[in-house]
Amino acid sequence: MSTTTRALSLGALPLVAVLGLAVLTGRSIQPSELKVGSPAVAACAQPPVFKPGYQRGKDYVVRQGKGYHFGGEAWVEATVCSAGTLAVTAYGELGGVEEPQLTVALNGDILASITFDHERTVQIQLPEAGEVIVAYLNDFYATDSRVIFLRDIKLSGTGCQDLQKIQFVKGKGIDLDPAAHTASLASGVPLTFTPCRAGELQVLALGRKGRSALPILKISEGGAVLYQRPVGTTWRPLRLNVQQRPLTLQLVNPYWKTLADRNLIVSKLNFTPNPPSAR
């Protein structure tokens, strides 16, 4: 069985993600490293309004009721006007060996990292005004699936290399980057494009097994099948003579089974300011 997993790594995070939290290094980030000024307390609101601040992928954090569903590495953020108590009600959907973990930071300093296996409410003391980040960063996702990876998609010789009239259904198991000449097929949904000229189509292909079987790639031109074979687990060149007509690439035997999916659901976020000091 072949599996694919998704987990957080420092190299995968953009700089903006590292600026907000130092979870991976276990240290507090100094204001000079953040390259921002003092907390924007003037822009605060009571109660504070939490909004998504970073998502590693589309819809990794979505609004759910009075809280948020974290389906991948992401965080929400708000600005608080004063010191106080942040009450967080959350529960986890288990996957892998770890429990979902919620991390709370204020002005770049990590205040708490709390795991959730069932719904409960925790309280975190915020010692000052400033920017609060509530993050989920230990996501885990594993599947047993058949996938075809394609790279160096090009036409032999000199001349144009463009893929024209590209057609596929987004979010249906197809990933295509025409500029990088790469693609992946993880469902039976077809990918269609037209080469900018006739010639020899050259592709490097690699397959990942699912349920112990190799994926099968079919390439058709104008309804005629030019190629239909299993794709092995090492990169192999594929060459086909093609015309300037629509080409359809398709994974013939799709298979996808989710093995584990760790998520965090934050039901409520409530902030209570500290009472004014007695004069």
Keywords for this entry:
single chain, about 280 residues, mainly beta, Jelly Rolls, 2 domains, seven-stranded antiparallel β-sheet, five-stranded antiparallel β-sheet, 2 helices, 22 strands, about 55% strand
What is the secondary structure topology, with strand pairs?
Layout: E1 3-6, H1 15-20, H2 31-34, E2 51-55, E3 61-64, E4 67-70, E5 74-80, E6 84-93, E7 101-106, E8 109-115, E9 120-126, E10 130-136, E11 140-145, E12 147-155, E13 163-167, E14 174-177, E15 182-185, E16 191-195, E17 199-208, E18 216-221, E19 224-230, E20 236-242, E21 247-251, E22 256-273
Antiparallel strand pairs: 1-11, 2-5, 3-4, 4-22, 5-10, 6-9, 6-22, 7-8, 7-10, 11-22, 12-15, 12-17, 13-16, 14-15, 16-21, 17-20, 18-19, 18-21
* Low-pLDDT residue intervals, each spanning 5 or more residues: 7-40
CATH superfamily of the largest domain: Galactose-binding domain-like
CA-based gyration radius: 24 Å
- The geometry reads as elongated
The number of distinct structural domains comes to 2
Strand content: over 45%
The largest sheet, given as strand count, sense and whether it forms a barrel, is: 7 strands, antiparallel
Q: At the third CATH level, what is the topology name of the largest domain?
A: Jelly Rolls
Helix content: under 10%
